[in-house]
Structures are given as C-alpha cells and as structure tokens.
Amino acid sequence: MGAKIKGAGTDIIEIEGVKKLKDVSYNVMPDRIETGTFLCMAAMSGGHIKVKEVNPNHITPVIHKLEEAGCKLELAKNKIEITAPKRLKAVDLKTTPYPGFPTDMQSLFATALTTAKGTSMIVENLFENRYKYTQELIRMGAKITVEGKTAVIKGVRKLYGANVKATDLRGGASLVMAGIVAKGTTKVENIEYILRGYERFDQKLKDLGIDIKCIN
What was the pLDDT predicted at 216? Predict the structure, then answer.
C-alpha cells in the first residue's frame, strides 16, 4: 500500500508517515483457532469431517496432539480431514507462544480429553485464570483437578447435560463442545462471549448434524 515500515521480527517497529496509501487486494488468513475448534469437536465426538479454507501449517502442534490422541488426519494445502476413534487416548500438553501449542486451544483440547481413556495433564504457561471453564465441566461429570497452572484430567465414559455459563470465548466454545457429546440437554448461558469469536457458529454446527439452537 506504500507504507514505510521497518523492524519486522524485532522488538521495535518504526513507521515513517507517507502522504498517501494506495489500494490493495488482500485475503485475510484463516482463523486457526476456529479450525482447531471444529477438529476438536470431531475428535471428541468420534466424528469424521473436512475443514476447508484452512492452513494446516498454522496449527501443526494441534494436529500432532490429535494424532497422538488416536485421530487420523489427512492434510492438503487448504483442507484438513479428520477421522476420530470412538474414544480418544489421554495426552499431555503445554501451551507455549507461536509456533507452539496455542493457549486459545487449551480449553478446547482439555474438554476433548475429559472423555479420553486415561489421565491427561495440561500446563498453561501463558495466562493466569484460564481454567474457569473446568468448574462448569465438573458440573457435567468431568473429573478435573486444577492446581496453579496445571490441570489433571481423568477421563470419564460420559458427560451429562447441565445448565452452564461461559466465562470467556474459548471456554464457552468448550462448553458447547461438551454439550454435543453429553447425555441429555445442555444449556450454555452468556453466549455473547462465544458469538464474538465465531461467525455463524450455531449454523455451522447444524450443518454437521448437531441439534442446537440459539435462544435470545
């Protein structure tokens, strides 16, 4: 566009103002966390889906952990196809800055592991208070113990529907994911957190065969 900027990849970005910027055509990169969300939903529910218009290179750590948990993934330039086992295997993970395992995927992957076979350990290295969602999952039958930045998850056979509250964006999406596989009906409140981070979230889930509706 004609801007004068230097310092990419360093601690200091220098911008020299110009009189005018020119038009440009640009494609916004795909949302790697939305991609990971649907992959985790398929993994937790034993599903088989294709996620299109994505960049697999952006979520390499998530892909590796899904494979470690027993999923089979086929990667293309802009598509990921996942086939999940009936029940995931427990895995351990630690969040780290990009290109490591994303902190925004922590709650989603942890939720998928609540029904995995075995005991998983999650370590959140980037942010504090990112385990609030676990209390809501415990109300649904999950067995999770949190101490400091570590969460220990003992996999259970079944989660049960309950009235739960989203306390943040990704934690809220995690509760929706738990509700998909839970026995009975799950009601998630405070969905404004979720809707600010996912476009047409409920409709995309309906397209996958999920019985879901938004209630204003």
Answer: 76
Within-domain flag for 9: no
Under DSSP, is residue 198 helix (H, G, I), strand (E, B) or coil?
A: coil
CATH number at residue 140: 3.65.10.10
Q: Are 87 and 80 in contact (CB under 8 A)?
A: no
Report how far residue 59's alpha carbon sits from residue 33's, in angstroms, rounded to the nearest whole number.
8
- As a whole number, the mean pLDDT across the chain is 96
Domain of 129, in residue numbers: 29-198
The model's pTM is 0.91
* Residue 75: inside a domain: yes
Which of 153, 214, 157 shows the shortest CA–CA distance to 183? 157
Assess if residue 78 is contained within a domain.
yes
CA distances from 86 to 6, 46, 136 (A): 51, 5, 24
Q: Name the domain count of the chain.
A: 1
Banded pLDDT at 49 (limits 50, 70, 90) = very high
Residue 9's pLDDT is 87
